[in-house]
Amino acid sequence: MPSTLLSYEQLPNIRDLGGMPAEGGRSIRCGRLIRCGHLGAISDKDLDQLSGLLSVIADFRTTREKTRQPDRDIPDTAYYHIPLVDSLTPGITRETEADESIITRLLFKPAQARTYMCQLYSSMATGKTQLAGYSKFLRILKEPHNRAVLWHCTVGKDRAGIGAVLVEEALGVPRSEIFADYLYTRKCLHSEIKNLCDSIKQKAATDSPLADESLSYLFGVDEEFLFSFYNTVKTVYGDMPSFFEKGLGITAGDRAVLQEMYLE
Predict the structure, then answer these.
(1) Per-residue pLDDT at 61
(2) C-alpha span between 122 and 118 (Å, rounded)
């Protein structure tokens, strides 16, 4: 059972992890852990809907991203800026300059596009900025909250996606369910990704199937991306518990606290 897609006007990929199966036959509590894209374009109705729902917002975008599209203020909500990359990152930060550079290089090279994205996911298990950011995020989750913790990047696909993976791993969600939830992004962002790819192909004056495949890797999700993350964890740390402990500074005791907070 993947996370639950919520109904909002301007948040097409906002999902509640509640209901996912977890450690000891339990499940994640509803209304406590929410992932999505940025909150800069939400409607007034969305703002009203979020008000009173959240305790914390964790924003994984770069300073430049959040300056260009600042989140709308949510009353009575603590805001944490936790950038997970230091600069423009094609395929991740979704900024015009970054997107155009990678499209120019890889539009007709799907194999290279896939490799590029796999390398980005691998870096999320080893990069100093990523490790420090995800460690801070998980520690924020450990603090007492009366309402939901929401985390986001730009579209809620990669940085927020790995954030969800780490939360689910910490709570003991089966690996098969974690993959299914990650790949659920294809459905949640289908229209947005298709429109973006169609626009890029129109601008490039191409209808090449190579372009379709390349863009599906650069702006979508693929299980190989997540395999790259896990394979790097295994190569560098041996297993996920060691990654939590040595890479993120999150102990077995910390994970037990998170399970007591977020499982029912």
Answers:
(1) 94
(2) 6
Model confidence pLDDT, tens digit, residues 186-241:
999 999 999 988 988 998 999 999 999 999 999 999 999 999 999 999 999 999 99
Residue 16 is classified by DSSP as E
- What are the distances in angstroms from CA 223 to CA 59, 182, 200? 24, 8, 24
The CA-CA-CA angle for residues 37, 227, 171, to 5°, reads 65
Q: Report all structural domains of the chain as residue ranges with CATH numbers, in order of start.
A: 4-259 (3.90.190.10)
> Distance between CA 196 and CA 178 in Å, rounded?
26
- In Å, what is the CA distance from 115 to each residue of 5, 87, 121? 29, 20, 10
SS3 content of the chain, % helix, strand, coil (to 5): 55, 10, 35
Q: How far apart are CA 108 and CA 25, in angstroms?
A: 46
Confidence of residue 98 (pLDDT cuts 50, 70, 90): low
Angle at 55 between CA 136 and CA 254, to 5 degrees: 40
Question: Please, are residues 62 and 85 in contact by the beta-carbon 8 Å criterion?
Answer: yes
pTM of the model: 0.94
